[in-house]
Amino acid sequence: MPGFYCALHTRGQKLDFHPHIHVVFCAGALSDSGEWVTPKKTTRDGKTFLFPVKELAAYFKNEFMSRGETGYVKRYKELIESNSLLFACDLVKEQLIEAYSCDDEIKMADKITTIINTCRGTKNEHFRWFARLLENHFEGIISHASYGISSGKIEGVNNKIKTVRRQAFGYHDDGYFFLKIIDASYQPTVKNPKSHRIFQ
Length: 200
Fold this sequence. Notes:
mainly alpha; two-stranded antiparallel ribbon; about 55% helix
């Protein structure tokens, strides 16, 4: 077959957990003599196709299920089990985005509770730690729906202070350190700055 590609999807149309694979390949093939052969079968709107989708789906399902726990089904379950934590991370990320887009505390509380249950359901120590973190700050988190207050600027200032401190091997006193912080705050931030050149 001249060309094909596969795409792995982990979500369904309703954004639920539904891992599946889409396979797209050319509507035709090469003959033994090397000539391109176009399928003669057409759909109602006149488009050609290589295989009838219903018959192919039934054949694939029969082959997939007939292998039992020793073939494709076993391998499929192994892949799901080995990547379950990655799927959980993706799911929690989407749930957090939905939760922080709420403007009602009750709806946000329900979504945060769902995230906590999801984290505990993984039985992973890191997810359990995150669940405890959400529980300990539950009231403050859901208040975001009403006030929309973010600590982003504060965290940015803290990161800038840490950067200034790391760039030096020590300062004479705290006053000079504060002056360096103020100076760094006045300077515009440039993402990916060009390297300095000795010769211009």
